[in-house]
């Protein structure tokens, strides 16, 4: 798995327009909420994904039950789920042809590297886009 330098992460984010936040929460004390709010403020089009909150809104955006239900082209999938769910979301990100898979800080799943090795997807593990953009 590639460990990107900060300038490379900023370059990756500069090419992104749409981001799906998998594991989005309506609770302002949750990291997914704080990152989603920051990414909206940075001008990204955000699509929250969480089956528990489907058909509701998070930060004014409709929440989707899964990635496949989003009709827009998703450039980046940002995962805020525990390790046991990351592989499934990675498979779904591949199916929707996301260009970037971003797995949040503190989360690392070696099998993601194996799964994404044959696709042209940038994979960023154990980083936070909010921190990258604010640096």
SSE layout and pairing:
Elements: H1 6-14, E1 18-22, H2 31-41, E2 45-49, E3 57-58, E4 61-62, E5 76-79, H3 83-95, E6 100-103, H4 110-116, E7 122-125, H5 129-134
Parallel strand pairs: 1-2, 1-5, 5-6, 6-7
Antiparallel strand pairs: 3-4
Helix pairs in contact: 3-4
Can you describe this structure in just a few lines?
This protein is of the alpha/beta class and 135 residues long. Helices cover 34% and strands 19% of the residues. It has a single domain (6-134), classed as Rossmann fold (3-Layer(aba) Sandwich), CATH 3.40.50.720.
Alpha carbon gap, first and last residue: 23 Å
Order of helices and strands: HEHEEEEHEHEH
CATH architecture: 3-Layer(aba) Sandwich
Number of domains: 1
Placed side by side, the strands forming the largest sheet appear as: 2-1-5-6-7
CATH third-level topology? Rossmann fold
